[in-house]
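Morning F.,

Quick status update on the modeling queue. The single chain you submitted on Monday has been processed. Sequence for confirmation:
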Amino acid sequence: MLLIRALSMAVSVYMMIIFVRIILTWFSWVGNSGFQELLAKVTDPYLGWFRRFTFLRIGHIDLSPIAALGVLSLLNRLLGTLVVHGRISIGLILALSLQAVWGAVSFILGFLIIVLILRLVAYYIRANNYSPFWRVIESISQPVLNKISRLIFKDRILNFVTALIISISALFLSYVILRILVNIVSRALANLPI
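Structure tokens below.
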């Protein structure tokens, strides 16, 4: 059990290192320091494995680090469960896997809801759409808005504000329904005897 605890601690530390690496990439204007290069050498081989999956990119947003952290989180949960209970069942592995996937999906849904709310705010305050911040918000929100509008209303043309409000509502409702379903299915899987 001591080895499993040490492995769990190592996974937790590696997750923190990856998180620091991700945050530092947001501040590329700071320049590369020796510390950043060391972080890159330690984390980029693992993160690079996830970057090859093109479905993890939405416009300018790269979601591969979320997937990478999700896998490490799943591994950490499995190790923690093994330490506490001394065994792991297939049902528990499935339940923890479902929760790890839900963690990533809920983050993405929450992120998209916030982006669409920001876009709605930008519309009402008549924000400068040419500033870099609002251009990024627009580049993320527009494909999401188009896709949701097409799914719900097919070929009908909607007022921009109406489309935003309906899209925010649809994402929020999806979040709530999926959360309830994931909780029910996770409990059922965790209680499987195998």
